[in-house]
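Below is the data:
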Amino acid sequence: MSDTQRLTAVILDERTVARRGPDIEQERRVAIHDLLQENTFAPAGMSCGPYRLHLGIEDASIVLDVRSETDAPVARVLLTLSPFRRIIKDYLLICDSYYEAIKDAPPSRIETLDMGRRGVHNEAADLLLEKLNGRVAVDFETARRLFTLLCVLQARK
């Protein structure tokens, strides 16, 4: 990984975020921390990184507002939200079930929910990779963490 093909900051557009509970806040903190520790992020045709990413939702689009280290605009990538709606809903529902289960469910139930959660998360990362293809080069783990942050933007509790 090149030092120029990476993110050094991720800022969520808080205007698009409803009130979040502690589980969602923890997901946000972990996703951003892990993403900044290791990622691959290279907007097509750009070589002026590393980058700062402002991530948000506008109208029915996911907005990746890519900026330089000095916060100068580099690229603005819009992805329609519609292909992600079902998978975001599924992921948030399974996460809710998982968080409830870890309180008092048997380990086998927790493990089953966690496996389902990882499966949906991987499916979402694949979808994000497909939609970013030709616009922004990211690796699978970066796509997974970006999807987590999309879910944080969509979470309603």
Summary: Residues 107-132 form the longest helix (26 residues).
